[in-house]
Design a protein that fits this description.
With 174 residues, this protein is mainly beta. It contains one helix and 14 strands. It is globular, with a radius of gyration of 17 Å. The two termini are 29 Å apart.
């Protein structure tokens, strides 16, 4: 029933907790973007050639560029604020995810964070927020993967924290 789905979604939205970078409750707002260049370019995952890879293209259409090309499953592409890099999650043979970075039009990849998924760039491009799979909480680190710190802590109501996003000013993470 549509009303039940709507009520369920509204209940979830009402339970979103905003925290600043040191874990204090905040009232900031966030917007998670999947496009860059004022919405002209998009990054997405597709299995159009038989494996799940990251692709980029113009939102208006045209030629697509395959950014990754390996047998691992890639997921959750996230553009850097300057549009030059894409952070993404890559599934390991162990069944766990790591966060990697690649130039926006392809090139050599670099592992940034182990046992993590769902990367989100800070607006200034100096930090990444992500889901830490070992703790089921949100963490933040610099873009080299260093200075990692927990942003959220589990409690009796929130047993898993996922899909981090920075506020527009970069001072809070949801």
């Amino acid at each position: 029933d549509v009303r039940a789905v709507h009520d369920s979604l509204r209940e979830r939205v009402e339970h979103i907790r905003w925290v600043d970078l040191v874990g204090r409750e905040s009232h900031a707002r966030s917007h998670r973007q999947s496009a860059r260049g004022h919405g002209r370019s998009v990054a997405f995952v597709s299995n159009r050639d038989g494996q799940y890879d990251i692709w980029v293209g113009l939102a208006a259409g045209g030629r697509l560029i395959r950014v990754t090309n390996d047998s691992s499953v890639e997921s959750h592409p996230s553009w850097s604020p300057d549009g030059t890099k894409i952070a993404f999650a890559k599934l390991k043979e162990s069944g766990l995810w790591d966060i990697w970075e690649i130039p926006a039009l392809g090139g050599p990849t670099r592992r940034v964070i182990v046992d993590a998924t769902e990367p989100a760039w800070s607006p200034d491009g100096r930090s990444l927020a992500y889901s830490n799979l070992a703790t089921n909480t949100i963490w933040s680190c610099d873009t080299s993967g260093g200075n990692a710190r927990a942003v959220t802590q589990l409690d009796s109501f929130y047993r898993v924290h996922r899909q981090a996003a920075f506020s527009h000013d970069g001072k809070s993470i949801v």
